[in-house]
């Protein structure tokens, strides 16, 4: 299908909208009526047709607007994109991975022509047609990682692997859930996860690191993570907390359905062949409560998950103060009926909300 | 299915280099391109030897940028269980084989200001790919390569003709030896040392570098062990509820696989840690041979690496 790209904003007037297509394919992150941390990894090898899992790098109706927002963030704060000197080869790896994947998965949108190291890249949605020499940085307007991540939705952490650990040594991070690349740059896996509550005690990170160190070429993996965001903001960074943190106080019973968004990250992991680094794309999907409630199963389940979430997690995810108001809203969509297993909407089999 | 992804390849060239070492070239059977890789990576080659499937890891020595073919060099081990003998005697040009995607357990540290390579014998192979990778990016490297004799000096001529200033060769039969303490003493700050060769050489380089005050993170090594034959023993696999026999010539991992139990693995040489298995109960003695577990873990009787380690005794129950 040809995607109709939305003309929309993630700031100021917040004209971001999900079409009915985007709501149906939203990666709802709860496979049961409760939530606790787990490593919850699976192979990233496609998925149901039309789902966000189908392609290696999902492109949707928000692509052009998200790339415009990224350019604005980078213009205001160039430190959102950093690459330590030894990570340039990994940047080329990432450029190759994304160009090859997108041109194969979306041939109507992206084209890649390769003659040895002389490459031509065509990105139709963004109107780009560039010829360059692979592995020669002087032939691109930016470094390879920055060049390609200005054309790919989601944040990208490029992790060096050494000493049985992963190191946050490069990345482009403009759509993050309140963490800072500039703060974390050069840290190892345990250092950058230090602020997360409960998971360390459960040994989650030791197991997760072991899994990630063993991700091999040709066998990428994925998982979902989630949080809450008031207004469809992509850039919820610590650097800009003074701008967006205050917006959490603007929620009212009248506007919560439109303003309160479930923020889901599709996290994928690919071994990069030439550098042996690991790339960790974090793709952000936003959906407001009123759109989520159009799927009866999700309405029932979201209420139960938010109601039963441990206080530490609601605090860490930044919505402890708004939780009572959220529950007032969500409880109207929970009629107590059982829900089916798994994350899918199951619109044909799940009963409508009882009046 | 355990292990890395597989690739169907055809043997396209076989070149005997000397009395012990032969080089094999593989291309994709479907005519497509092979994945690129990073210098230091290995592939696991599957050999169909009658009813046996042998799987041995070999370092990739070709240019990591060359996607048309992979090459490996195999040293014949007359005392081993037969994998290298199979490669030397039973593999011909045109044969179809299965190899794994590249896996790198011996990666370059790209932060290094200089890469100092120490190779012994067939341990030269990962460095050949790393040198090609570094040459492309004007990397700073130096090689010290010890061989038994000129006749057994695989790739010495290539290296000394292309890289005369970086390559230093030492022949055992001419009583030449690497003056390691002096060599380490003269290195610029930010140098990383990499060693690949026999166990004695690896231990010597690691111990000497540590004694000279080199940081642990700057010392890299790789040694694949071949599983050794041993007395047969019986194992109970608790999860799959099977009692299996491990034969004299097969490894514990191979016996588990033979019984149709899927067990994780990557290197099959005691280095990567993937096949680590919990011991539920035992009466007897472990013969631990891996580089993965720490000494106290070996002593604990709680873990075993079935790719290279064995057991002698009455009862062994594994969580598999």
Which sequence of strands runs across the widest sheet of chain A? 1-8-9-10-6-7-2
Please count the beta strands of chain A (DSSP E, at least 2 residues each): 10
Order of helix and strand elements from N to C terminus of chain B: EEEEEHEEEHEHEHEHEEEHEHEE
Low-pLDDT residue spans of chain A: none
Give the SSE string of chain A: HEHEHEEEHEEHHHEHHEEHHHH
Biggest β-sheet of chain A: count, sense, barrel? 7 strands, antiparallel
Biggest interface between chains: A-B, 18 and 26 residues
Could you report the average pLDDT of chain A, rounded to the nearest whole number? 95
Please state roughly what percent of the residues of chain A sit in beta strands, choosing from under 5%, 5-15%, 15-25%, 25-35%, 35-45% or over 45%.
15-25%
Cofactor (chain B): FMN
Protein name (chain B): PDR/VanB family oxidoreductase
InterPro entries (chain B): 2Fe-2S_ferredoxin-like_sf (IPR036010), 2Fe-2S_ferredoxin-type (IPR001041), 2Fe2S_fd_BS (IPR006058), Beta-grasp_dom_sf (IPR012675), DmmA-like_N (IPR054582), FAD-bd_FR_type (IPR017927), FNR_nucleotide-bd (IPR039261), MRET (IPR050415)
Keywords (chain B): 2Fe-2S, Flavoprotein, FMN, Iron, Iron-sulfur, Metal-binding, Oxidoreductase
Can you walk me through this structure?
The complex is a heterodimer of chains A (355) and B (320). With 355 residues, chain A is of the alpha+beta class. Chain A has one domain (20-331). Chain A is 28% helix and 20% strand. Chain A contains 13 helices and 10 strands. In chain A, strand 4 (118-123) and strand 5 form a beta hairpin. Chain A starts with 19 loop residues before the first helix and ends in a 24-residue tail after the last helix. Chain B has 320 residues and is of the alpha/beta class. Helices cover 18% and strands 34% of the residues of chain B. The two termini of chain B are 15 Å apart. Chain B is built from 7 helices and 17 strands. Chain B is globular.
Short descriptors:
heterodimer; A: 3-stranded antiparallel beta sheet; globular; B: 320 residues; alpha/beta; Elongation Factor Tu (Ef-tu), domain 3; Rossmann fold; Ubiquitin-like (UB roll); 7-stranded antiparallel beta sheet; 34% strand
């Amino acid at each position: 299908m040809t995607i109709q790209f939305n003309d929309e904003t993630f700031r100021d007037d917040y004209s971001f909208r999900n079409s009915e297509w985007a709501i149906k394919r939203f990666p709802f992150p709860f496979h049961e009526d409760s939530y606790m941390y787990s490593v919850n990894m699976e192979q990233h090898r496609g998925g149901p047709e039309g789902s966000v899992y189908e392609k290696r790098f999902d492109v949707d109706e928000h692509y052009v607007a998200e790339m415009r927002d990224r350019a604005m963030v980078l213009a205001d704060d160039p430190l959102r994109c950093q690459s330590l000197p030894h990570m340039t080869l990994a940047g080329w790896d990432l450029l190759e991975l994304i160009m090859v994947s997108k041109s194969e998965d979306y041939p109507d949108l992206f084209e890649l022509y390769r003659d040895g190291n002389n490459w031509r890249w065509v990105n139709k949605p963004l109107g780009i047609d560039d010829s360059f020499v692979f592995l020669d940085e002087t032939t691109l307007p930016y470094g390879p990682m920055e060049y390609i991540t200005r054309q790919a939705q989601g944040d990208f952490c490029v992790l060096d692997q050494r000493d049985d650990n992963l190191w946050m040594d490069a990345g482009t991070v403009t759509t993050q859930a309140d963490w800072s690349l500039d703060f974390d740059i050069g840290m190892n896996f345990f250092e950058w996860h230090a602020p997360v509550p409960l998971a360390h005690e459960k040994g989650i990170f030791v197991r997760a690191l072991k899994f990630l160190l063993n991700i091999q070429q040709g066998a990428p993996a994925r998982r979902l993570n989630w949080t809450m965001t008031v207004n469809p903001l992509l850039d919820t960074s610590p650097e800009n907390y003074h701008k967006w943190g205050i917006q959490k106080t603007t929620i009212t019973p009248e506007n919560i359905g439109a303003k309160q968004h479930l923020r889901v990250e599709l996290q994928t992991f690919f071994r990069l062949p030439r550098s042996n680094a690991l790339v960790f794309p974090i793709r952000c999907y936003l959906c407001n409560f009123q759109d989520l409630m159009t799927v009866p199963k999700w309405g029932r389940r979201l209420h139960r998950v938010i109601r039963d979430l441990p206080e530490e997690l609601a605090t860490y995810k930044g919505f402890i103060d708004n939780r009572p108001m959220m529950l007032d809203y969500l409880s109207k969509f929970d009629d107590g009926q059982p829900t089916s297993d798994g994350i899918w909407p199951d619109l044909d089999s799940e009963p409508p909300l009882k009046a | 299915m355990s292990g890395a992804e597989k690739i169907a390849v055809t043997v396209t060239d076989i070149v005997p280099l000397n009395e012990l070492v032969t080089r094999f070239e593989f291309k994709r059977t479907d005519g497509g391109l092979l994945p690129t890789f990073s210098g230091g990576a290995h592939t696991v080659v599957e050999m169909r030897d009658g009813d046996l499937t042998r799987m041995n890891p070999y370092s990739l020595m070709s240019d990591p940028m060359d996607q048309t073919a992979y090459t490996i060099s195999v040293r014949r081990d007359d005392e081993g269980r037969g994998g290298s003998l199979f490669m030397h005697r039973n593999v011909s040009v045109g044969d179809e084989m299965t190899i794994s995607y590249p896996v790198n357990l011996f990666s370059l540290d790209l932060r290094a200001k200089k890469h100092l390579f120490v190779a012994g014998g067939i341990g030269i192979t990962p460095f050949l790919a790393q040198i090609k990778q570094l040459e492309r990016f004007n990397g700073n490297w130096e090689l010290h390569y010890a061989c038994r004799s000129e006749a057994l000096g695989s790739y010495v001529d290539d290296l000394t003709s292309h890289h005369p200033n970086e390559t230093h060769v030492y022949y055992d039969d001419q009583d030449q030896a690497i003056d390691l303490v002096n060599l380490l003493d003269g290195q610029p700050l930010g140098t990383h040392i990499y060693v690949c060769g026999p166990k004695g050489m690896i231990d010597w380089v690691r111990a000497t570098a540590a004694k000279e005050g080199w940081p642990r993170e700057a010392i890299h090594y790789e040694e694949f062990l071949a599983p050794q034959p041993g007395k047969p023993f019986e194992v109970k696999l608790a999860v799959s509820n099977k009692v299996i026999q491990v034969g004299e010539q097969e490894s514990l991992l191979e016996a588990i696989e033979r019984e149709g139990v899927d067990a994780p693995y990557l290197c099959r040489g005691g280095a990567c840690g993937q096949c680590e298995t919990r011991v539920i109960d035992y009466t007897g003695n472990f013969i631990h041979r891996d580089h993965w577990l720490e000494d106290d873990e070996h002593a604990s009787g709680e873990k075993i690496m079935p790719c290279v380690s064995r057991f002698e005794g009455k009862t062994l129950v594994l969580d598999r």
